């Protein structure tokens, strides 16, 4: 990120306000009920003692997230300056709320939105609530079973067949750090007068170091970033950036009010402010450490287990955030799930695993001692685990939309066993967590392909949301209205 800051990025307005308030040592005749920690249940008092006094509410001097003109407004302006946005909104309900807000603020019921197959469940929630109609973009899948990203060509083809689309959603980086060429995608969208909505949940750190991919920045009209995923903010702290004036700020603020609590957590807001300051003052140094740690682990792996490499992605029109380390365990006869549990037995927990690969995320929090332990654990992996090639998951099924997500999710439904549901229309999403990408979205035909994927995922131990305990899924009653 270029450092053109003119505001005082050393400041922490949230801390200034909270400190000034608590220094008064006031008697708390107001919510929250724990009264600065005194009424915390036994067992919580000790771990939360330092934080609880700052768990406050909208008192004089502490501003209001939904109508900010004080410390929260200043903190958001400081963040907007660092990320080069025209406005930044703090999110206390994760990128999940931000993604839905992007769609609610920009789309009316019936508007077409071009949506990539690697979209997170939150995009579908936005489609349900807004009534917008998805036009799905294909996303290439690697042999090892993970999704790459959308290409600029796929977006051009989508707009050619859907010239009146209101917006295109791009999820970049994807879960494995694969970034799309947002600038080329945005150029196409602008030709068609469409908005560019970027789910950058995994990319808050992009652009802070020359060896990281570029952030979407001004190529986006709106972008959402989970600062709890790659920065040091508390879960589920996130932000929504607004670039330019093609989206309606009033509608956006309204959508954020509909979707977020009226009692935002001040410790969470403070963590967003502090994460901004940390990135503004030392983002480049910190991410250089994370890149270095990931590079060292790549080097340790050497020829032992192949990993995703940036050069390949750049040659193919994508980019790769190399702080996401994807080990292609399946290529050397190691089941990623077994490798992950082996690492867990050495007290090393990775982000996700499936039969063909596992994903480890490096942030500036990893230190030299960690690297030594990682090296030891990895060097023991191949010999003890190498077997025949594990059965890989089939590619994610192609979505076949029959009715809109809104019609399906809000209409009448009944439940039936998965194996009997082929030919029905899904009324609720079935989603593999992680990465939170629906296998089936509401309104889609339950195909044989989708059932096979779900059965394979269950068999390999991947956690799925959307099926009940007896393996039944919700399907639509009646035909609903067909999607064009
Ligand atoms: C691509 C993507 N978008 C959005 C989200 C939702 O983010 P959050 O957990 O901040 O609500 C996730 C969560 O994993 C995600 O992977």
What does this structure look like?
The protein is of the alpha/beta class and 484 residues long. Helices cover 36% and strands 15% of the residues. The chain is built from 16 helices and 17 strands. It has helices at 13-22, 45-48, 71-83, 94-106, 121-130, 152-161, 182-191, 227-230, 249-259, 266-301, 310-315, 336-345, 368-379, 381-385, 405-410, 448-459; strands at 87-91, 112-116, 133-137, 167-171, 178-179, 195-199, 222-226, 238-242, 319-320, 324-327, 352-354, 357-361, 413-417, 430-433, 437-440, 463-465, 472-476. It has a seven-stranded mixed sheet with strand order 1-8-7-6-4-2-3, with helices on both faces. A three-stranded antiparallel sheet has the order 10-12-11, with helices on one face. Helix 1 packs across helix 10 (266-301), helix 3 packs parallel to helix 10 (266-301) and helix 4 (94-106) crosses helix 9. Residues 480-484 have low confidence and may be disordered. The structure holds pyridoxal-5'-phosphate.
- The value of Rg in angstroms is 23 Å
User: Could you tell me which ligands this complex binds, including any ions or cofactors?
Assistant: pyridoxal-5'-phosphate
Mean pLDDT figure: 93
Strand content: 5-15%
**CATH class wording of the largest domain:** Alpha Beta
| Distance, first to last CA | 42 Å
How many domains? The number is: 3
SS elements, strand count? 17
As residue ranges, the low-confidence spans are: 480-484
CATH topology of the largest domain: Aspartate Aminotransferase, domain 2
Strand order of the largest sheet: 1-8-7-6-4-2-3
Largest sheet: 7 strands, mixed
Helix content: 25-40%
Silhouette: globular
Number of helical elements: 16
> Which architecture name of the largest domain does CATH use?
3-Layer(aba) Sandwich
Structural class of the secondary structure composition? alpha/beta
Q: For this structure, what is the CATH homologous superfamily of the largest domain?
A: Type I PLP-dependent aspartate aminotransferase-like (Major domain)
